Structure formats: C-alpha cells, structure tokens
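Deliverable D5.2: sample structural annotation.
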Amino acid sequence: MTGSDTTGSDTTGSDPTGSDPTGPAPVLVTGPTGTVGGPLVELLAARGVPVVAGVRDPARFAESVESRVLDFERPETFPAALRGIGRVFLMRPPAISDTKRYLRPFIEAAERHGVEHVVFLSLMGVNRVMPHWQVEQDLRASGLGSTFLRPSFFAQNLQTAYRSDIRDHSAIRVPSGRGRTSFIDTRDVAAVAAIVLAAPGRHAGQAYTLTGPAALDYHQVASMLSAELGRPVGYEPRSLLGYRRELLAQGLPSAYVTVQLLINLIARVGLAAGVTDTVERLLGRPATPLATYLHDLRHCWEKLDPAGRPAGPGVG
C-alpha cells in the first residue's frame, strides 16, 4: 500500500537540484562518516553549499571539506564547531541513549550560536521508548527551525551490521520473523536532507516519513541476495532474547543492542511495512529499489579467497 506523508504539506521539492542555498553560512553535518552523512557531505559540496564536517578526530577525516572537532560528550567542543554555522544536519550517535544529557545541550548551544535550522535524522514510527523521540521534543521546544526525517530501516544495514553473516555464512540472522520492512537506501535519505538543507524555509516544521518503494520480508531479501551473488543466501530467524545475547557477546553497547531489538520488534509485529511516496515527491524520482542497492553494493558480500580477492559466484 502506498500513502502520502500526512505530516508534510510542501513536499513537491520545487528545486530538486538543491541549487538554491539560502545564504553563505555553512551547513554543519554531524555523522559525516556514516551512510547518510557521507553522501550528504558529497551532495552539498558538489552543489556549492558550504559544508563543515563535525567529527571527533578531524585528522582521520579525509574528505575535501572543512572539519571541526565535535564530540557530544564534550560540550566544550560546541562553540568552535558551531561558529558561523547557519544550518545543522543532526544525527544521534548510536552509542548515545541519554539524549537529555548529551544532545539537549548541543541543541541549546546551537540556538545560542545563531543556528537557524536543524534537520534531524529521526526514525519511522518514532515513539517515547526511542531516544529519537526526546530529541524531537527538545527541538520543538527550542527556538530553532527544524525538520524531522523519519526513514524506515536502512538498506545499508545489510552492508554494515549484517555484512559478515551474509558474506561469511551466507545467512541473514535477525529476529524479524515474517515481518516486512520498507527498506530505504540511505543515498535517498541523504538526497532528501540535501533538498531540505538547501531551502529549509520550505520544509520548516515538517516531519517526513521516508521509505523505499516496497515492503519485503527477509526471506525475500535473502532470495534477492542469492540472485545477485550467484550463491544461496538464507534467512535464519532469531528469537529476540537470543539475538540480544549474541549482540552483547560481541561487545556491542547495550544502548545499541536495545535499538536493534526495537527495530526488529517493530518489523516482527508488522509496523515497519508502511510505504510512502514522500521520497518520490521530494526528489522528483522514485525511491531506489532494494534490488538496485544490492546490485550497486554487491562487492560488500562477495566471499574472499585467502589473498583477499573476490572468490567468485557459487562459492558457498
């Protein structure tokens, strides 16, 4: 089922090229090494929008844009990071669950330093039990203009969180049951963020639910991976408790594990299957199908030979 995003009114994206920046003040992009922030930095820079990357260690950031030290756990980094900034793309670091302690002070600092607009990367179906919800409330309570992007589950999780299972074991191991998910390509999320940041006045106060063009269960995803990689890939459903134990045994932070469990629980009970046409209306083109993403990134799941080279199809 396809539907419109009822929280947004101006979603036509009259300037889909993003070539209408609202002034010379640069955009601060948080999470610039991530699967949304990385493409966003490239899109903004390519369109001539001044960009500043907020990173914990600028020495390790190789992109050809200005970078500044920004650490949400170190408020003393906020003034220099926000100096002269007009707009902010805000992403909650996965390790931070106490947003009142770490992100609220950043929002307050952004307001003090004259930031005009914040585009916040939230979550589809956001509710009180998710840390994203509190950030949305803090932005609404501030004097900042804001836009919330609420994407569905990232297709790119298949190349990050689930990569080793798919590549090394030809299996997807998650506790989503038969629930369907409207996977979105983070390149589409970045493109929407670029549109909003280039003309924030058109999108102020909006909350955009962003999804891919179809909802799929993991049996279907495994079948698509099998076809793309030329070897069988299976879906091995996990229990929620078993999955929690597996992630904690890998040494992952408990806050990250909790968010992963919530995301999979949402899919498991059928709440991740909603599909909107918001991406198409904002970008003037359809959302990227999962099959296209799998084809573009197939190298991520190719098995390697002992020399580290792709071992070729059919290797199982």
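Annotation notes: The mean pLDDT is 89. The radius of gyration is 20 Å.
The annotation will be released with the project's public dataset once the embargo ends.
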